[in-house]
Amino acid sequence: MYNESFQDVHLPVPDTSATELAFNRRSVPEKIPGLSDDNESSFVIGIGGHHAPPNVRLFSYVLPAIELAKKDGDGKHSLTLTSSLNAALRYNYANAETAEQNAVSLHTRRKIAFILAFIKEFFPKVFSETGTYYGDIQNEVPEEVWINIWDEIRKIRPDICDAFLKGIRREESNGTKAYAVRHAFWFLDFVIHGDTEFTGNINASAISTGSEKEALFNSIRRGALSLPLDFLEKTLNRTIIRREKIFQLIFPTGNPVPYGEASKGKKGKTRSAEVEISSDQSIVSLEGKLLEDVLYTFDKLEELAGASRKDFLNFLNSLKS
What's the pTM? Predict the structure, then answer.
């Protein structure tokens, strides 16, 4: 239920929020500064809803989290692959043809399945458990509630909102506001009471990893975390649990995120190294000029799992069957 009484209240900002850190993905630290050595942590990686088929760069996106978890001891931490698929269909593909909407759903779910298969194949002991999260409970919340939360963030941190809009190159529409705020719930910074889809440990520290594009959404997540919990509960008309410790880790790549957008050349053409993985194609080939994401994947597979390029190629072709 939308609570109008909070529209014009300028709320104070609590001291607690998330910690954002940036690292070179080829030089992952042994420990995350500020993270306890003894406690279990929950890694959370976002996979955006997109119509593009999976490509071979996809696996580079999860390797920093895998390396961090492995350095801290196999089987200690969990992993959740979370997706904004529901809202992508609602806001980004609302006017698309049914065939394209179906492609968004199919390819997004397939990317998540491929990542889980990659972990099972090369890193089966790294995580104590792996799971997925689509945030279906968010669909029960009226859009004006998310908009109200955005407006409150803007009152406190207009600079965050302006930088976000500039970074994603969008106008401040209601859909953009709602889509941005919902990221705090997709990434499980907050869990709505009664959300049976979430089965993890809410008391565990949350560690989200992503590229520079995720840093834009992370700022809105921190804005939501800065709001008093009683405001959020009254606005959503629901009981909410907020994590006490959240780390937002950014690993800049200089490339588009590999779970969706294609890499474009100077003339706007997709580079040949953007190799898609689909059941109707011939055997995947990784010859010729390869993007840094793929080379990075080769190197880390050899370093962390003792796997060769041939092993990776065999794995890619097994996904097509």
Answer: 0.88
